Amino acid sequence: MISMTGFAARRGVGVGYTWTWDLRSVNGKGLDLRLRVPDWIDGLEAMLRAELQKAISRGNVSLTLKVTQDEGRDDAAFRLNEAALGAALTALGRVEAAAMALHVTLRQPTSADVLTLRGVIDATAQDTDTTPLRQALLADFPALLADFHAMRGSEGRALAAVLTAQLDRIASLTAEAQAETATRAVTQAASLRDAVARVLAATETVDPARLAQELALLAVKTDVTEELDRLTAHVAAARAHLAEGQPAGRKLDFLMQEFMREANTLCSKAQSLGLTRIGLDLKTVIDQMREQVQNVE
């Protein structure tokens, strides 16, 4: 099992440049990729996006790449766009002033941060081939992904242990409900006999067919056999999803809705304090499990 929560950072050096990666993700319904990479490196963003789409199926994922030029390298390859730089600094000043007015302290941006802003480096003025740099970055990227997957896998194993314990609890409560149903049947039979006796004592004529119909309807309304059978089947299905080694977040999320539906019906049909207590305990565990499932890829 893999968690949608993960983080990895990496630093690389090569072909006259130094770069830093920052890759992180949180849970999401689908795959949402947000990349901040230098736009002056031709084709890099599209290639990185394609690699991420192949490696990750769900989550809100953000990738940040900062590239700086090593000292002694020809500065002609990096001509500043003075107009864009001025606009960027003006915007940063306005942001800082607004933050100070609200008594909010912001981290001061570095010169490297400013250089990564779109347009500050004049791409049209660059006459250096960025292919070697792009190739070096793409060669370094798999190591970042490996670290990222390792953390998500570690989080996933912890999630699997929690979900397994919660499924064990649901199975145990389902077994308790089945035992309580047998006890309730004896009490219900006595209650039905008393009710029928009161009806017969209160009226001189009773339609036997109508009485049988009402008793049958009452039995159907209080029968929880199907709900308990479905809960047992849902537990088995959830265990199979945990063990299959494939992204199972969507399937488990759907099962959580089915679990809660059966627990709600169980409570509505309980007709006993013991069965009501078990139903409420089931709803509590299922709700806790649903929160954990939101983090599963």
Give me a quick take on this structure.
With 297 residues, this protein is α+β, with helices and mostly antiparallel strands. The chain contains eight helices and four strands.
**Average pLDDT for all residues:** 86
- Unreliable stretches, pLDDT < 50, 5 or more residues? none
Query: Termini separation (Å)?
Result: 8 Å
The largest sheet is: 4 strands, mixed
Order of helices and strands: EEEHEHHHHHHH
Question: What's the number of helices?
Answer: 8
| Percent of residues in beta strands | 5-15%
Which shape, going by the Cα principal axes? elongated
Helix content: 55-70%
Strand order of the largest sheet: 1-2-4-3
Question: From the alpha-carbon coordinates, what is the Rg to the nearest angstrom?
Answer: 31 Å
> Class by helix and strand content?
alpha+beta
Structure description:
It is a single chain. By secondary structure, this protein is an alpha+beta fold. Among the domains are: 80-120, no CATH class; 157-293, no CATH class. Helix content is 62%, strand content 12%. It has eight helices and four strands; from the N terminus they run βββαβααααααα. It has a four-stranded mixed β-sheet with strand order 1-2-4-3, covered by helices on one side. The longest helix is centred in the middle third of the chain and has 72 residues, at 131-202. It is elongated and about 105 Å long. The relative contact order is 0.13.
